[in-house]
Write a structure and sequence with these properties.
This protein has about 230 residues and is an alpha+beta fold. The chain has 4 helices and 10 strands, in the order αααββββββββββα.
Length: about 230
Amino acid sequence: MRKGIVQLVAIGVVIGVVLTLVAVLFQWLPTSASEEFDRIQGIFWLATWISIAIFSLVTAVVVFSVWKWRVSDDDDADGPPIHGHTGLEILWTAVPAVLVIVIGVVSAVVLARNGQAGPRPLEVTAIGQQFTWRFEYPDSEVTTGELVLPVGREARFTMRALDVLHSFWVPEFGQKMDAVPGISTTILVTPKRTGDFRVVCTELCGLGHATMRARARVVSEQEFEAWLEERRT
């Protein structure tokens, strides 16, 4: 009995190590460039580690069972009747329920934090129109086709669409929001590193959907103020 448990655990550990290497060695998500995306990636990795643990356990039991209790091809005998194990059934129902609740609670907390604006966020209006983006800075009366944000400062995006449904997404920011004709939607982004990025429309909006891109830059606060002043003049 003890030998079988050791073998079962060994199989599970091997499967878990292989899956962990696959999860860690390959880059599945863009490199985060916002505080909001850091929180989202936390949920992603929480769900990933839970999935690896469950998959390793289930697969180890299946592999061990096939290996230890396989029968020959000419064995047509019925196996002995086995009554269900009530305690085990309760366990494999309760554990997934608890894990789902944990993921749900953590996701709700992150969703709430990512949607909670600070006292004075930078206001930006993102306007989608076939097949281009336009960005307005209401406080500075600046309109541009290029998105520029200061690093470390929270920005609140108000989404508008002038024709059909569009969707605003910068992969490295992690936040995505639809721009819906007739209503305004909002998201918050707090860039944490400077660099050049790409604004992408992720809703099929017509023949030119694939070309609906815009440049996004995250710069220092001083560079941002100088850029605003240059655009104003």
